[in-house]
Fold this protein.
Amino acid sequence: MEKKEYVERFYRNWCVKEEDIQSYNVKYKESDLFIKSDKDFSKVVVDLLRELHKDIINYSSMDPRFLRALEYYETDIPKPYVVQLMFDSAKRFNVGPMAAVAGAISQIVGEKLSEYSNTVIIENGGDIFIKSYSETTIGIFAGESPFSERIGIKIAPTFESSIGICTSSGTVGPSKSFGIADAAVILAERAALADAAATALGNLVQMKTDIKELLEDFVNKHKLIGGMIIRGTELAVYKVEILKIS
């Protein structure tokens, strides 16, 4: 099945709209972040993205497997924080470290902005960091599935901690997946972990898969917060609350 590329990020319009919260877009090289926070911290974000990209590029020049590995591997090469976070997340699900790159960037930027802002919501290619004192709804884009753009996940207020919500797709977008899910969504305590988990879950979704059983087993085995699988007209939801948004 050929994957369909997409550019417009519909779910960026589905986050909760709050007074006194700034919404802004920050782009740097491959990173394209949509952010909600108490103030516009674009300068802080650009400076941080510059450092993160430099760390990733420098590490990749020393480790030829890094950018292309599809499974976890051990290496003694010293790693900067963002790369170590990617490896740690990938190890838990036996995926390549690049499977966690967008989530790791969302997480690091989110943790930094949390030093200045009570509300921080960061979306990076479908990988989301949330720390908010208000209830939040995150819409799900699932290609041509009839559920696409019509349902969202309800996120309770997060106070002292944050959560990560990440999506993998075998039918939409540039990221590699061995499965056929229109959307495999995972909620976890960290965005990098959710990113690696969503990739691993998406890889497991095949034509004859019982997606309800697969999702429940996967979430319980890995002690995750919850998740969702969309495959065409099929929908499996576990330990999350969904809402109709259109």
About this structure: The longest strand covers residues 22-28.
